[in-house]
């Protein structure tokens, strides 16, 4: 299936999803991973309404004295990660994503763990269907740290229903509640 068709299909399902039980399970599983426990720095998005809420992840990281870095789009093909804390000022960009307007950037390779967003993931190859900008595919190409994605029952597929391209990057670990 074409990626844009898959995105529309998945987006329609996400709009009516009550996934609170799934999500709490995902958080608990994440916080018990070695990758989480060993990381002193976490890269994570500031979630939108259709994504798994990242606020509990950010709060847990900050409460455990982990540095948190969130992405900021700097042009059509690049983003940088900026340190996030309680003083960080945010602005919603034209894509509807909150981004920091102040704070120090960091080389992505210095972040221990990236929590990778996505519309969908597959169990067979750890493929991810992103939101169409390719930002994370470009970041993940040479990223040496650990990558984890969280997938509720709507986001998790046994096999990709979308076309996987050569430039698409997999995620090391997908924590999921169950799949179709």
TrEMBL record:
Coiled coil regions in record: none
Cofactor(s) for this UniProt protein: Mg(2+)
Keywords for the protein's UniProt record, in alphabetical order: ATP-binding, Ligase, Magnesium, Metal-binding, Nucleotide-binding
Enzyme Commission number: 6.3.3.2
Catalytic reaction(s) noted: (6S)-5-formyl-5,6,7,8-tetrahydrofolate + ATP = (6R)-5,10-methenyltetrahydrofolate + ADP + phosphate
Record InterPro entries: FTHF_cligase, FTHF_cligase-like_sf, NagB/RpiA_transferase-like
Organism: Apilactobacillus nanyangensis
SUPFAM superfamilies to which the protein is assigned, alphabetical: NagB/RpiA/CoA transferase-like
Similarity comment: Belongs to the 5-formyltetrahydrofolate cyclo-ligase family.
Protein name, UniProt field: 5-formyltetrahydrofolate cyclo-ligase
Signal sequence, renumbered to the chain: none
GO molecular function, one term: 5-formyltetrahydrofolate cyclo-ligase activity
Keyword Protease belongs to the record: no
Class in the EC hierarchy, top level: ligase
PANTHER family from the UniProt entry: 5-FORMYLTETRAHYDROFOLATE CYCLO-LIGASE (PTHR23407:SF1), ATPASE INHIBITOR/5-FORMYLTETRAHYDROFOLATE CYCLO-LIGASE (PTHR23407)
NCBIfam families in the record: MTHFS_bact (TIGR02727)
Superkingdom to which the source organism belongs: Bacteria
